[in-house]
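Researcher: Please predict.
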Amino acid sequence: MGKRKKRPVYDYIEQEKVLNKPWLSTEDLLIIIPAGKTAIENFRKSLCKEMDTNNEFYFNTRPILVPTKKVIEKAHIDVALIRREANKMRKGMII
């Protein structure tokens, strides 16, 4: 068996850049949600199914894009924490 490829660790600045986008792809979800690819795919599919039942719009093309606001609500992401820590990291890099 071959070695498994490890996921890179994303810092708060990279996470903030993703949260500033209006629509998120699966690759963006991998950056902001600490889970594997299969779990992210299942999360996105459940979000799309929920939006279909509520007659809400998302881009059902390739790549499938879901609204950032819905992802934040469903995954309970603390945006204020990410922005605060990203600002601390920027200040630390300036000095």
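Model: The chain has one domain: 24-94.
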